[in-house]
């Protein structure tokens, strides 16, 4: 049976190779890695040959040790010969240490994880293995200098500092509300992905699956030792006034009419925020939150805590 990736590495870089394989499998990819798949009693050469034949692509864990290894060279060389121009992305180098590839390897574009935090490294790895064009979902910030033409100050005002300027009430348009809800949902989705990665790295017995069901709906499920322990669905309710719906547990996840929480636009007139309508006892547990006016980041942490609360019991 075909596998997505074979992880090629040296013994010194085993921790990196295992971490890479774990991140890939957590996202639904299949891998072959010596640490997990080459079992006692087997023939190493045969297992290596089988792995190279079964895997669609090979990830080479690049370090100075790897480039000097007489055993690693045949592994990447065999894959390179099948796709010398890189058209099929058969060989994906991942740099985990300072090294200087030479010869044929100098032409390869690699994934660079050197010096990154775990969250950033995971994001770089998962985006790097995708074959699709890496255009971001949101427009990039303007890289040039932002300049604002200010009018001259009234001479009588010069020298006055720290003047109070009142916040002016602004009407919230339907488009502004919809845009804010959609941006908050994206923040929430990214928070779940990043938090799941950290949770799994610290607790190998835990696996979290996050599924993007559509542009406005996602589902998350947490397994402990392979047994499902927590499950939730989060979606944007496309009503006249958009809301973010949250449903937890294993029942009623196929529909959007059952709620354990609803996050709606808060009544704050000067800035956008989310109001929890079904916070109940969580207001006491998370007393540092203002549940009538949550930022997108606070709402993300709140729902993540609700989702994972069953794992702490």
In a nutshell, what does this entry contain?
With 313 residues, the chain is an alpha/beta fold.
Shape: elongated
The helix-and-strand class reads alpha/beta
Helix content: 25-40%
Q: Radius of gyration, Cα only, in angstroms?
A: 25 Å
Number of strands: 11
Detail the poorly predicted runs. none
Strand residues, percent:
15-25%
Q: How far apart are the termini? A: 39 Å
The total number of structural domains is 2
Major β-sheet annotation? 6 strands, antiparallel
Q: Strand order, biggest sheet? A: 6-7-8-9-10-11
* Discrete helix count: 9
H/E element sequence: EHEHHEHHEEHHEEEEEEHH
The average pLDDT is 85
Word description of this protein:
Helix content is 32%, strand content 21%. It has 313 residues and is an alpha/beta fold. The strands form two sheets. The chain has a six-stranded antiparallel β-sheet, with helices on one face. Strands 2-1-3-4-5 form a five-stranded parallel β-sheet. Strand 8 and strand 9 (243-248) form a beta hairpin. Helix 7 packs across helix 9. The two termini are 39 Å apart.
Key phrases:
313 residues, alpha/beta, Rossmann fold, 2 domains, 6-stranded antiparallel β-sheet, 5-stranded parallel β-sheet, 9 helices
Which helices and strands, and how do they pair?
Layout: E1 3-8, H1 14-26, E2 31-33, H2 34-37, H3 44-54, E3 55-62, H4 64-68, H5 72-82, E4 91-95, E5 111-112, H6 118-128, H7 174-202, E6 206-214, E7 217-224, E8 227-237, E9 243-248, E10 261-265, E11 274-276, H8 282-285, H9 296-308
Helix pairs in contact: 6-7, 7-9
């Amino acid at each position: 049976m075909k596998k997505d990736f074979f992880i090629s590495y040296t013994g010194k870089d085993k921790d990196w190779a295992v971490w890479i394989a774990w991140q890939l499998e957590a996202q639904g990819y299949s891998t072959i890695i010596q640490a997990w798949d080459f079992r006692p009693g087997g023939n190493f050469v045969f297992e290596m040959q089988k792995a190279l034949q079964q895997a669609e692509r090979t990830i080479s864990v690049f370090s100075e040790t790897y480039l000097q290894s007489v055993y690693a060279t045949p592994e990447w060389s065999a894959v390179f010969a099948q796709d010398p121009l890189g058209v099929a992305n058969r060989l994906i180098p991942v740099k985990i240490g300072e090294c200087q590839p030479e010869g044929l390897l100098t032409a390869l574009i690699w994934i660079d994880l050197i010096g990154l935090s775990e969250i950033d490294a995971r994001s770089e790895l998962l985006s790097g293995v995708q074959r699709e064009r890496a255009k971001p979902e949101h427009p990039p910030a303007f890289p040039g200098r932002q300049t604002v033409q200010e009018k001259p100050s009234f001479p009588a005002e010069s020298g006055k500092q720290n003047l109070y300027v009142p916040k002016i009430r602004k009407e919230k348009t339907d488009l502004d509300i919809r845009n804010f809800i959609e941006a908050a949902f994206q923040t929430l989705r990214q928070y779940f992905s990043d938090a799941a990665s950290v949770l799994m790295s610290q607790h190998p017995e835990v696996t979290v699956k996050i599924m993007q069901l559509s542009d406005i709906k996602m589902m998350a499920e947490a397994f402990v030792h392979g047994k499902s322990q927590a499950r939730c669905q989060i979606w944007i309710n496309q009503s006249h006034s958009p809301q973010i719906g949250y449903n937890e547990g294993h029942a009623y996840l196929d529909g959007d009419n059952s709620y354990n929480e609803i996050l709606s636009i808060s009544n704050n007139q000067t800035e956008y925020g989310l109001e929890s309508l079904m916070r109940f006892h969580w207001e006491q547990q998370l007393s540092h939150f203002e549940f009538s006016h949550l930022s997108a980041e606070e709402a993300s942490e709140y729902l993540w805590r609700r989702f994972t609360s069953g794992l702490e019991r």
